[in-house]
Amino acid sequence: MRQNNCHYNALIFLLLTALALALDNGLARQPPMGWLSWERFGCETNCSEFPDTCISERLYLEQGRLLVENGFRDAGYIYVNIDDCWSEMERENGKIVEDRTRFPSGLKNLSQTLHSLDLKLGLYGDIGSKTCIGYPGFQGNFDLDAQTLAFDFEVDSIKVDACHANESEFNVTYPAFGAALNKTGRPILYSCSWPNDYYEKHNHWEDPDYLNHGIKQSCNTWRNYIDVSDSWESILKIASFWERKGPQDVMVRAAGPGHWNDPDMLVVGNPGLSLSEQKTQFALWSIFSAPLMISTDLRTLPNASREILLNKDIIAVNQDVLGRQGWCAEKSRSGLQRVWVKELKPTSDQYCPTSSSDSWAVVFQNSASIFGPTRITFNPKKHLPVTAKVFDLFHVRDLYAQKSLGIFEGEFTAMVDESSVMMYIIVGNQTSSDDSFKSLG
Q: Do the beta carbons of residue 416 and residue 369 sit within 8 Å?
């Protein structure tokens, strides 16, 4: 009984702390979109030998301008995010300062330049004493560092890692730093690595008290799982972790406007994935309602990869204002094929005779690497939750082909290539007797 009381008291403390320090910045009403340097550029600081790829103001200005010139900004990719290794190795007069050799104009100037392009600057820090690479962390300086971010650098986003930190204190330190950001009065998107390492070890990503009443109340986005790498194995491993079974899952319920689960960066455009594998990552991240943070060199981005990242229909699924996270509605016996679904805001368009036709995003995933295309079927009565409206007829739009496939009754089937996906919008009608809907096919 005493142990149970202690657990109860600890939860009450956590809930009260989270409520008192709840993030209140009005940001990330939809999953944030932008560019982030880490996966592609890492921590290269030797600008003499690697001037084109070192972590410097030149790199971020070039990538930012390419976001504008190549249509990414207008598609929603507005954050230009610096990761680790941007600062001096030691504080000056108590403050973290930018590396003056690699950022000679200063971060404030960089921020203002990006703002003039209608872009936003994101930065990186650590809740502990040092960053993962060993640069100064925020520990013991939350208020001062929040003020520095807000006024000395004028940043719009901060990614806070969890290296060199006491993991048992994350439920206090992460909300406290969020409160320090709030006090500045500057809206700064707050991305946390709170559950990333700690919850992998302790399985607390499934704990509704920690996820829904702690992390969700304190962070705009949070990493749940391992870092992504430029490999198909990495994408499949992350997708398997995100294989939530329905809308009642704690991770699915935690996502919504202002607070999102984060499976890590997009590696679309890098050499580690085939084109079909790049399409798979983008489709899955979209249906996960995940932040869309590109980590590639936009100077050498292949046209085919650019088309994937700028697919307006798939971006619209990710940015849907209803803010639901998708889940896995069916997995084959082999575990290699999945049907993913995501509820969308009810729509009314030329395909729908009523003003509130149900809309769903659907992904057919085939992760097999042999035996050719595989048949995958969507059936609304089988794959949608019992709370969804029942419909017999539905319109299907292919999002990668960007064309209507017509009206279907009962079910829809497609052949999906190995290591690939098909992605659709399904717009349903409640009755098969509606001839005006059926005639649209």
A: no
User: How open is the CA angle 293-289-40, to the nearest 5 degrees?
Assistant: 20
pLDDT at 340: 98
Strands 327-331 and 337-347 come out as antiparallel
SS (H, E, C) 82-122: CCCCCECCCCECCECCECCCCCCCCHHHHHHHHHHCCCEEE
Query: Cα–Cα–Cα angle for 154, 131, 78, nearest 5°?
Result: 40
pTM score of the predicted model: 0.91
Structure tokens at 5: 């009381």
Distance of CA 143 to the CA centre of its chain: 27
Query: Under a CB-based contact definition with an 8 Å cutoff, are residues 41 and 86 in contact?
Result: no
The catalytic site residues sit at: 161, 227
The tens digit of pLDDT for each residue in 214-259 reads 888 999 999 988 899 999 999 999 999 999 999 999 999 999 999 9
pLDDT at 106 over 60: yes
Lookup result for tokens 């729908």: 352
Residue in 132, 130, 117 with CA at minimum distance from that of residue 61: 117
